[in-house]
Write a structure and sequence with these properties.
Layout: H1 2-26, H2 35-38, E1 43-49, E2 51-73, E3 79-84, E4 91-92, E5 97-101, H3 104-139, H4 145-177, E6 180-182, E7 187-189, E8 199-200, E9 209-224, H5 228-237, E10 241-245, E11 254-261, E12 271-278, E13 290-307, E14 312-314, E15 317-323, E16 329-333, E17 335-340, E18 343-348, E19 355-359, E20 370-375, E21 383-389
Parallel strand pairs: 1-20, 2-21
Antiparallel strand pairs: 1-19, 2-9, 2-13, 3-5, 3-8, 4-7, 5-6, 7-9, 9-12, 10-11, 10-13, 11-12, 13-18, 14-15, 15-16, 15-19, 17-18
Helix pairs in contact: 3-4
Length: about 400
C-alpha cells in the first residue's frame, strides 16, 4: 500500500508541473527554440528591378554555312591543259576565262568539216540543176519520168548530206569553244586539282576546280517539328529574321531571313530543315562553317522581365521575394512566361518597377528584413528567349 501511495504522488507532481508551464506560455513568455529565429538581423541580399520592355521569343540552334551555288568545273573535250587564268582562291565573275586547252586539233577539225560542207553544197547545186533540166525535158516528153525521179532523189540526198555537214561544222565550232573554259557563276575558286600541262578528259570524275558562290550564302539548320506551324504563320506575315553568330565573334551577328523550308520532316529526329539567306558582304561566313543560329519567332512588346535567378520554386509553384519600401520581403507567387539569356518573363504576379531578390534567398522568409548590398538592375535591352537548343545541320 505504501508503494502505491508514492506512485500516485509522483503522477500528481508531474501534472502540476505541466499546468505551470502552460500558464507560463499563456502569459506571453516565448519558447526558447523560437528566440533565435525571430531575433536574427537583416539578411544581406542582391536585388534587381523588374523592367517592362520588349522580349523576343527565340529558337537557339546550331547551323552550318552552305554555299548558295557550287559548280565543279570539268572539261567537255579531251586535250592538253595549256594555261590557267586565275589564282587559287580568287574571286571570279560569270563568263571569266578559267582554263585554256590546246585548240589546234579542234581548229583543224573545224576546217575539215567546213571543207566537206563546201564540197557537198556544190554537189547539191549540181543535183538541183539536173532536177530542173529533167523536169523541163519531162514536160516536153523528151525524157522519161524515171530519169526525173532519179534526179529528184539525188537532189534530196545531196540536201540531206549538206544538213549533216552543217551539223558537223556546228559541233566542231562548239568543241573549239570548249577549249576555253569559262566560269558559269560568280564565286570564289578553290584549289586547282589538275595543273597545266596535264591531259584532261571530257567529263572526268574529278573536277579541275570547284567554285562556290558566297554572295549571297545559305545557313542551314533544323528545328523541332512542333515549331513548324508558328514558323509558317510568321513567314506569311513577313520575313522571318534569323541571326548567325560565329562562336569566336559573338558580338558580330550576321542578319538574314528564312527563305526555305524543307518539304518533309525527318522521321528519325523529328526535325525539319530550314535555310536562311545572308548577303555575306564581308565574307565572314564560309561554306562548311558552324554558327550559332537564333530564329526570332515573335516579340512580346511590353513584358515584365526579371533575372531568372530571382524565380524560386516550392510545392505550390513559382514565387519571388519582393522587397517592399520598408525593407521587408514579401514571398509572392508568380506565373512565369518565356525565358532565355538569363531573363524570365513574369506573366502574372509582379509589376514593373518592383524590386526582387536575386541572391541571398536561402535566409529569407515572408516578413524577413533585408539589407540591400548590391543592385543588379536589368539593362534596358531587348531580351531573347531560348525556346530550344537544337541539333546541328
Amino acid at each position: 500500500m505504501r508503494g502505491n501511495r508514492w506512485y500516485f504522488i509522483g503522477i500528481a507532481v508531474i501534472a502540476l508541473a505541466a499546468v505551470a508551464y502552460s500558464v507560463q506560455r499563456s502569459n506571453g513568455q516565448p519558447k526558447q527554440a523560437d528566440a533565435p529565429v525571430r531575433g536574427r538581423g537583416a539578411a544581406p541580399v542582391v536585388v534587381a528591378t523588374a523592367q517592362q520592355q520588349p522580349f523576343a521569343i527565340n529558337l537557339n540552334v546550331i547551323g552550318s554555312v552552305q554555299a548558295y551555288a557550287t559548280v565543279a568545273i570539268k572539261s567537255r573535250v579531251d586535250g592538253q591543259l595549256v594555261s590557267a587564268h586565275f589564282q587559287d582562291g580568287q574571286t571570279v565573275k560569270k563568263g571569266d576565262r578559267l582554263f585554256s586547252i590546246d585548240s589546234r586539233p579542234f581548229e583543224a577539225s573545224l576546217r575539215q568539216s567546213e571543207a566537206a560542207l563546201a564540197r557537198d553544197r556544190a554537189q547539191m547545186v549540181k543535183t538541183g540543176e539536173d532536177l530542173k533540166r529533167y523536169g523541163e525535158l519531162l514536160q516536153k516528153e523528151y525524157s522519161s519520168r524515171q530519169k526525173y525521179e532519179e534526179a529528184k532523189a539525188n537532189y534530196a540526198a545531196a540536201e540531206a548530206t549538206v544538213r549533216a555537214n552543217e551539223a558537223m561544222v556546228e559541233n566542231a565550232r562548239l568543241n573549239l569553244e570548249y577549249t576555253q573554259i569559262l566560269s558559269p557563276i560568280d564565286g570564289r575558286t578553290g584549289s586547282m586539282m589538275i595543273n597545266t600541262g596535264n591531259l584532261v578528259k571530257a567529263n572526268d570524275a574529278n573536277p579541275i576546280v570547284v567554285i562556290n558562290q558566297t554572295h549571297p550564302i545559305y545557313v542551314q539548320f533544323s528545328v523541332a517539328e512542333k515549331y513548324l506551324p508558328e514558323i509558317r504563320r510568321r513567314m506569311l506575315e513577313g520575313p522571318l529574321a534569323v541571326s548567325a553568330v560565329i562562336p569566336a565573334e559573338p558580338d558580330k551577328p550576321e542578319k538574314g531571313a528564312v527563305t526555305f523550308i524543307n518539304n518533309a520532316v525527318d522521321m528519325q529526329s523529328g526535325t525539319i530543315l530550314l535555310k536562311a539567306t545572308y548577303e555575306n558582304a564581308n565574307d565572314r561566313l564560309t561554306p562548311g562553317q558552324f554558327v550559332n543560329v537564333t530564329l526570332t519567332l515573335s516579340t512580346i512588346p511590353d513584358a515584365v522581365v526579371i533575372p531568372s535567378q530571382a524565380v524560386q520554386t516550392n510545392l505550390d509553384g513559382n514565387y519571388v521575394f519582393v522587397v517592399k519600401p520598408d525593407m521587408v520581403v514579401d514571398q509572392r507567387p508568380v506565373t512565369v512566361g518565356p525565358a532565355g539569356d538569363g531573363q524570365t518573363v513574369i506573366a502574372k504576379g509582379l509589376n514593373a518597377g518592383e524590386r526582387v531578390v536575386t541572391e541571398g534567398q536561402l535566409r529569407l522568409f515572408a516578413g524577413a528584413r533585408v539589407d540591400i548590398r548590391q543592385s543588379a538592375d536589368n539593362p534596358p535591352a531587348v531580351g531573347g528567349g531560348a525556346a530550344e537548343r537544337g541539333k546541328s545541320s
